[in-house]
Amino acid sequence: MKVLIIGFGNMGQTYANSFIGSGFVNSNDIFVLNRSEVEKTKRASIPKENFTIKSTQALFEVDIIILAVKPQDFMVMSHQIKPFLNEEHLFLSVMAGISIERIQNELNVEKVVRSMPNIPTQIGQGITVFSASQEIDRKELFIIQNLINTTGKSLYVSDEKMLNPATAISGSGPAYVYYFMDAMIKAAENLGFSNSEATFLVNNTYLGAVQLQSRSNLSHEDWINKVTSKGGTTEAALDVFANEKVFENIEKAIKEANKRAEDLGK
């Protein structure tokens, strides 16, 4: 199986490294089309001759094409590659906001999978939500899912519209976690801990809490109740969250992120 990655930014590099690291794709069978020369340190074990800045017919003699350019660069890219495409090509897009239908129309192709990965894919701990055009059969979808799963876990949705909520939840989600962690670290520093001590405390609190919950059948509400005692410290903090409507504001923020994802796709 030969794979062409168009765009070698963070996601392009992540896929290349994951494919090679998992052994799913041989490094000699990965080709890269980028708008500028790729530095030697970023090529992984892919041969230098597999990198190019120019489209040629030979370059597109591959099975799968990964569209990893920025959404705003899609139109320029589509004009450059369209003459070299055929109906047998299988496409995996990681471009936010660009619909399957638009990709099909602009490139005059049929087999398109659209995905929304998040940043932990860089360490093989990501979650990717994906959807596919009707022209893709089960075998092809299985192959694509195996490729995606080299970067973590995946969730298939039959309704492409669910990719916008996925963007708001899992795509943007790590930033919400970092935001809350940063607030906890600053609070710890204000209470007298050094930055390194505060970071150590908060990072390991998150790691432990997530692992504990994932290994049990208890709900998050159950765990909150286990940590909280009547008249205790946790209850005092949760009372502030409730009074400030933190729960409702988080939901409001995610809805706003979803709306923005919808707007970007128009």
From TrEMBL:
Pathway: Amino-acid biosynthesis; L-proline biosynthesis; L-proline from L-glutamate 5-semialdehyde: step 1/1. Its main location: cytoplasm. It is found in: Cytoplasm. The keyword Transmembrane does not apply. SUPFAM superfamilies: 6-phosphogluconate dehydrogenase C-terminal domain-like, NAD(P)-binding Rossmann-fold domains. Its EC number is 1.5.1.2. Residues 160-263 form the Pyrroline-5-carboxylate reductase dimerisation domain. Keywords: Amino-acid biosynthesis, Cytoplasm, NADP, Oxidoreductase, Proline biosynthesis. Residues 2-97 form the Pyrroline-5-carboxylate reductase catalytic N-terminal domain. It catalyses: L-proline + NAD(+) = (S)-1-pyrroline-5-carboxylate + NADH + 2 H(+); L-proline + NADP(+) = (S)-1-pyrroline-5-carboxylate + NADPH + 2 H(+). Pfam families: F420_oxidored, P5CR_dimer. NCBIfam families: proC. Catalyzes the reduction of 1-pyrroline-5-carboxylate (PCA) to L-proline. HAMAP family: P5C_reductase. Belongs to the pyrroline-5-carboxylate reductase family. This is Pyrroline-5-carboxylate reductase.
